[in-house]
Specification:
Structural class: mainly alpha
Helix content: over 70%
Order of helices and strands: HHHHHHH
Number of helices: 7
Strand content: under 5%
Low-confidence stretches: none
Length: 214
C-alpha cells in the first residue's frame, strides 16, 4: 500500500524574504545606475529631450539592457515574495500575477530591442508593451494596498500614493513635446522605483520580524 503524500510545511522563511527583498531593491538601483552611465557614455545624448528608449538603441544598448533586466528581476522577486507572504484577498492574488507579468513586460522591452528607431523587422510590439506596462503600474498598487494595509497603514498609504501619482502622471507622457519627454520619462521611472522600494521595505521588515521571533 502506497504511503500517503506528506503535507508541505506552511511557514514563513525570513531569510528568503530578506534576501529577495534586498535583491528587488538592488535591482532598482542597478537600473538607475545603468541609465546614469548611459547618459554620459552615449554620444550626443540629451537626457532632457531623449527618452530612455533612445539610450537603448545603438552601440551602447547593452548598458540600458542590463538595467532593464535588473528591473525585470526586481518585479519577479517581488512577485515571489508576494506569493510567499500572501496578505489575503483576491486583490493580493491578482497583484502577484500583475507583478510577474510586469517583470516579463520589462524583460521583453529590453530583449526585443524595439525602441522607436525605425525598426520594422518582424512584428514591432514596443508600443503595446509600453501600454501594458502603464496599465499594470496603475493597477498593481490598487490591488496590493489592502493587503499591505493589514500590516501597516503606512505601506497601504504609500501604495495608494504611488498608484494615484502614476495614474495622473503617466498619460501626459504621450502628449508632451519631444523636447522634454526624456526628463518626464525619468520622473515616471522614479514612481516605478517608489513601488519597488515600498514593497521591498515591506517584505524585508516582515522577514526581520519573523526572524526575531525565532
Amino acid at each position: 500500500m502506497s504511503e500517503a503524500p506528506r503535507q508541505p510545511r506552511i511557514e514563513n522563511e525570513p531569510t528568503l524574504m530578506i534576501t529577495l527583498g534586498w535583491y528587488a531593491a538592488v535591482g532598482g538601483v542597478v537600473f538607475v545606475v545603468s541609465i546614469l552611465i548611459a547618459d554620459f557614455v552615449v554620444p550626443e545624448h540629451d537626457w532632457i529631450a531623449d527618452t530612455i528608449s533612445d539610450l537603448g538603441a545603438g552601440r551602447f544598448e547593452y548598458i540600458v539592457d542590463i538595467g532593464l533586466y535588473s528591473l525585470s528581476a526586481s518585479f519577479i522577486a517581488l512577485a515571489l515574495l508576494a506569493a510567499h507572504v500572501h496578505m489575503g484577498g483576491w486583490g493580493w492574488s491578482v497583484g502577484i500575477v500583475g507583478l510577474a507579468v510586469l517583470g516579463l513586460v520589462v524583460f521583453l522591452v529590453g530583449a526585443r530591442n524595439e525602441y522607436g528607431d525605425s525598426d520594422n523587422d518582424g512584428w514591432v510590439i514596443h508600443s503595446y508593451l509600453v501600454y501594458l506596462l502603464g496599465l499594470l503600474m496603475a493597477l498593481i498598487p490598487a490591488l496590493l494596498h489592502s493587503g499591505a494595509r493589514r500590516a501597516s497603514a503606512t505601506y497601504g498609504n504609500c501604495l495608494v500614493a504611488v498608484g494615484v501619482m502614476w495614474t495622473i502622471s503617466a498619460p501626459w507622457f504621450f502628449f508632451l513635446p519631444t523636447t522634454v519627454d526624456g526628463l518626464y520619462e525619468r520622473y515616471l521611472g522614479l514612481i516605478a522605483l517608489a513601488l519597488i522600494f515600498t514593497l521591498s521595505h515591506f517584505f524585508i521588515r516582515h522577514g526581520r520580524a519573523f526572524d526575531d521571533r525565532r
